[in-house]
């Protein structure tokens, strides 16, 4: 193994002596500061790049998770609507209900038949907890039967569904959001116009859904999740929202939501909406748009441990940088220290001559030979 011929030079000039003599003018100090700065800058640059990539991956993961949650919400609500449609079909095929709907059957539909129909509607309403009530309206007889009572439409208190049914009597079934009895609560009403033939309008079946119970099934109740869920129908009406003030309004007229891109399904981050992550999903079955909005602040709070990790990593990088800079600076300063020792004690270099220098002579040995 090659031996350094300067290894015999006494280390008279100790580090603390040099620091005392030269202070910040010392080559050692200046080298240490420069190396520390370069190393720390390099390590911090790497950490910032890693952190940025981690944040991008985390945002993508959060967006995909919100999309998955929204897809599950869509599947649940589509299943609810499908079940409601099946109930409406079964009612439309029921002989007692048809007897009530058909014109000229007023005399046949007596008090006993009315009570029987009420019990039947109550049975169907009991199928699911989210069904608030069911109405069947006969247009020709101007009568209505519900899960609670029956009689003339003129004496019925809840009429906020009536105009929608009558103005769109030849349109397919739809779901509207309305105020029950024009005061409270909000309900989702499945309105199914009934026709004997294409041109012979009989009345309608109205199935009212409890909006609070639907919300419990649709919206995540995870601690601190604070999801704002909206459902937009084909006519651009907000038929469901966790923000009650949005209900029954046109989505396109809401200034707050204008930044949301409704064209493509997926997620997007809207800075103008309090830095929220917005997921959009379309229902092929109903033609609805589902929108989920969750504040990124919720996830930032959850990332407290990540911030702690970055702080610990910062301290680790700083300590490693100091130790590495000190080691490199001392190593690089060693030849300078040996030359200083030789200048103070010239006799220490008498062993260095061309005959005993090995083939691996370096620059320091060359300096020693010429002193």
Radius of gyration: 41 Å
SSE order: HHHHEEEHEEEHEEEEEHHH
The overall strand count is 11
- The main sheet orders its strands as 3-2-1-6-5-4
Oligomer: single chain
The N- to C-terminal Cα distance equals 27 Å
- Uncertain segments of ≥5 residues (pLDDT<50)? 1-13
Mean pLDDT: 78
Strand content: 15-25%
- Mass-distribution shape: rod-shaped
The main pleated sheet reads as: 6 strands, antiparallel
Can you give the helix content as a percent range?
Answer: 40-55%
Backbone structural class = alpha+beta
Determine the number of helices (DSSP H or I, runs of at least 4 residues): 9
Structural account:
A six-stranded antiparallel β-sheet has the order 3-2-1-6-5-4. A five-stranded antiparallel β-sheet has the order 8-7-11-10-9. With 371 residues, the chain is of the alpha+beta class. A hairpin with a 6-residue loop joins β4 (174-179) and β5 (186-195). The protein has nine helices and eleven strands. The two termini are 27 Å apart. Mean pLDDT is 78; it is low at 1-13.
């Amino acid at each position: 193994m090659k031996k350094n011929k300067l290894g015999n030079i006494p280390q008279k000039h100790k580090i603390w002596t040099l620091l005392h003599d030269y202070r910040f003018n010392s080559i050692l100090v200046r080298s240490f500061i420069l190396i520390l700065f370069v190393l720390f800058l390099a390590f911090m640059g790497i950490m910032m790049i890693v952190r940025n990539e981690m944040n991008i991956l985390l945002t993508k993961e959060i967006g995909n998770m919100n999309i998955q949650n929204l897809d599950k919400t869509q599947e649940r609500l589509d299943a609810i609507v499908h079940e409601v449609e099946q109930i409406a079909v079964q009612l439309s095929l029921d002989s007692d209900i048809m007897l009530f709907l058909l014109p000229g059957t007023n005399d046949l539909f007596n008090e006993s038949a009315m009570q029987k129909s009420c019990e039947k509607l109550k049975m169907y309403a009991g199928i699911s907890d989210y069904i608030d009530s069911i109405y069947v309206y006969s247009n020709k007889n101007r009568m209505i039967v519900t899960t609670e009572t029956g009689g003339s439409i003129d004496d019925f208190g809840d009429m906020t569904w009536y105009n929608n049914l009558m103005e769109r009597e030849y349109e397919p079934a739809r779901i509207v959001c309305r105020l029950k009895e024009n005061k409270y609560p909000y309900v989702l009403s499945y309105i199914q116009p009934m026709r004997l033939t294409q041109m012979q309008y009989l009345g309608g079946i109205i199935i009212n859904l409890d909006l609070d119970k639907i919300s419990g099934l649709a919206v995540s109740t995870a601690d601190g999740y604070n999801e704002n869920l909206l459902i937009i129908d084909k006519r651009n009406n907000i038929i469901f929202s966790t923000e009650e003030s949005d209900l029954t309004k046109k989505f396109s007229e809401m200034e707050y939501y204008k930044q949301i891109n409704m064209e493509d399904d997926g997620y997007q981050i809207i800075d103008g909406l309090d830095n929220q992550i917005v997921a959009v999903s379309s229902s092929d079955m109903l033609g609805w748009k589902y929108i989920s909005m969750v504040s990124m602040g919720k996830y930032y709070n959850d990332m407290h441990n990540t911030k702690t990790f970055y702080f610990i990593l910062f301290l680790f990088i700083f300590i490693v940088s100091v130790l590495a800079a000190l080691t490199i600076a001392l190593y690089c300063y060693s030849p300078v220290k040996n030359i200083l020792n030789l200048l103070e004690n010239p006799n220490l270099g008498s062993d260095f001559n061309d005959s005993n220098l090995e083939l691996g002579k370096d620059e320091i040995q060359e300096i020693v030979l010429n002193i």
